[in-house]
Amino acid sequence: MNVKQVSQLVGVSIRTLHHYDEIGLLIPDHVTEAGYRQYSEENLQTLQHILFFKELGFSLKQIRSILQSPDFNTFEALQLQRRSLLAKREQLEVMIATIDRTIAHVKGEIQMSTEEKFAGLKWNINPYEQEAREKWGDQAVDQSKQRLGKLSQQQKAELEQQCNEIYQGLADRIGTPVDSEETMALVKRWYELLNSNFGTYSYDAFIGLGQLYVQDERFTANIDQYGQGLAQYMSEAMAYWGNLQKQ
Fold this sequence. Notes:
Blueprint: H1 3-10, H2 14-22, E1 30-31, E2 37-38, H3 41-55, H4 60-68, H5 74-106, H6 114-117, H7 129-136, H8 138-149, H9 153-171, H10 181-197, H11 203-215, H12 217-223, H13 230-246
Antiparallel strand pairs: 1-2
Helix pairs in contact: 3-4, 7-8, 9-10, 10-13, 11-12, 11-13
Protein name: MerR family transcriptional regulator
Keywords: Activator, DNA-binding, Transcription, Transcription regulation
GO molecular function: DNA binding; DNA-binding transcription factor activity
């Protein structure tokens, strides 16, 4: 198939397919003398993997690393993608149910508890482990997992609740100065919670984490579920607080 046919079949722009070729992610098996790209069945299978992994939140860099690994196995990749998509579907179903119940709550038909309002929106513990390993190394991630693994179900639930309280508290502060006493108190709680449960963060690492909230669209989308603009607000507040501690 030529690039136009692949574009029409998959719904991916020709420009995107050219970009995938340029970065070595999807190189056509054949290029004509006139310079036209020709895609094989194997190329199309690779493209399917790329699109599935993208849907699951992987970056193009990560996808390329996965596909080029000597240990890569198509069947195992499809199984992983299926499990991940099923988990994502389950979360979406819970979120839809939460929206339906919230609509009924707003209309006065039912009463919802604070916990029920955030069903399906809870911040997953260490949601981007692969990226964390790339950025901070295996040892830091493994230490974090060991700490969390020792927690009971009740302790994990309490930790999730603490995370939610901080996120929601900061979401309620969006639009107010990041150097306000209330915001600084919440940011300090976030710093202490991270260091108590997720690893050891220097002030610079804490500031860097805040920058990641706005640089990585997956973090931004997840955090902004608590309030549009929360990722940006947290990033600025974490930078202000972290630099203040370094003085």
